[in-house]
């Protein structure tokens, strides 16, 4: 995973060199190249290789997935949304560059992600590229990430149940992770049934990611997390530990990790190992 993440970092650096207007590009690069685990792009590469594809063909989409994820973080941290001044152990983008530039940097990353995926992908039939682009668009739009974000904002301070909480996180977090895996499979030439299994794997991993995030938010410090600890409870947000209790939330995480691994049955066991271990890594991460 560390080696894949390093290659993703190199590809991101090459894809977005510093150029005019420098302040906008510097803001984009500040958040895009900040230290991160690169879970989403690594999932894209692993899914592509799982179905017989090459890492190089999936790298542009892996980069696009990370650009879209970072866009969501830059916007999520803004004072008008989550108002967080710390991200990945660094001052949030709007703290470093100002709110106006941060909004525009997020917008620019959103646009550039699709341009890069479409232009830089080589050696893949155009219809596969088109299908993967559409997958990313749906994952980040009004039926995906942004839908979850809006319901999350509207639910602050309200009494919501597990059904609404699951809707928020299936859209706000899981949908992009699902798309990351599905795009890797599509670019790698997966059969339709394989894409659907990868999609279910990604959905389980995405929800798992958020359940663990909620647990960490109440059990770790800001220094350990690299972002502000306890902010969800402070803002009156519903979380899995708040609605289920800490131990039941941890049990749910274990169930989701097992479900993710179950979806990998039928694929070559050795080639599927990275995806299997990624699920376990997400379940047991500490930041």
Largest sheet: 2 strands, antiparallel
Portion of residues within helices = over 70%
- The count of helical stretches stands at 15
Total beta-strand segments: 2
Q: Could you say which overall geometry the principal axes of the C-alpha atoms support?
A: globular
Mean pLDDT score, rounded?
A: 92
Placed side by side, the strands forming the largest sheet appear as 1-2
Q: What value does the Rg take, in angstroms?
A: 18 Å
The assigned structural class equals mainly alpha
What is the N-to-C succession of helices and strands?
HHHHEEHHHHHHHHHHH
User: Cα distance, first to last residue?
Assistant: 16 Å
- Low-pLDDT regions: none
Report strand %. Answer: under 5%
SSE arrangement:
Elements (H helix, E strand, L loop, with lengths): L1 H14 L6 H11 L6 H12 L4 H22 L9 E2 L2 E2 L1 H5 L1 H22 L5 H15 L4 H11 L6 H27 L3 H28 L2 H4 L5 H4 L5 H5 L1 H17 L10 H12 L3
Antiparallel strand pairs: 1-2
Helix pairs in contact: 1-4, 2-6, 3-4, 3-9, 4-6, 4-9, 7-9, 8-9, 9-10, 10-14, 10-15, 14-15
